[in-house]
Design a protein that fits this description.
It contains 2 helices and 4 strands; from the N terminus they run E-E-H-E-H-E. By secondary structure, it is an alpha+beta fold. Strand 1 and strand 2 form a beta hairpin. The longest helix is centred in the first third of the chain and has 14 residues. It is globular and about 30 Å long. The mean pLDDT is about 85.
């Protein structure tokens, strides 16, 4: 779960990813770094598939995989 303390929200990975995708749609976000926890590979794969192609993924753990080029 993802805790957004300032907003007073606790989100599951799917809802958290949708929030980030919404921000990408409304703001000039072009890079995303280590978006989800290291053990949440399923949510990461779904996010990578849903994010626009212009968004670059920066993933620091070699154990994590994304279906598109990452930095």
């Amino acid at each position: 779960l993802y805790h957004l303390a300032l907003d007073g929200k606790i989100l599951d990975p799917a809802v958290f990813s949708q929030n980030i995708l919404s921000w990408i749609k409304h703001y000039p976000i072009t890079f995303v770094k280590d978006l989800l926890t290291e053990d949440d590979t399923s949510a990461l794969a779904k996010f990578c598939a849903s994010a626009p192609n212009y968004v670059q993924m920066i993933i620091s753990s070699p154990m994590r995989r994304c279906s598109r080029p990452i930095i």
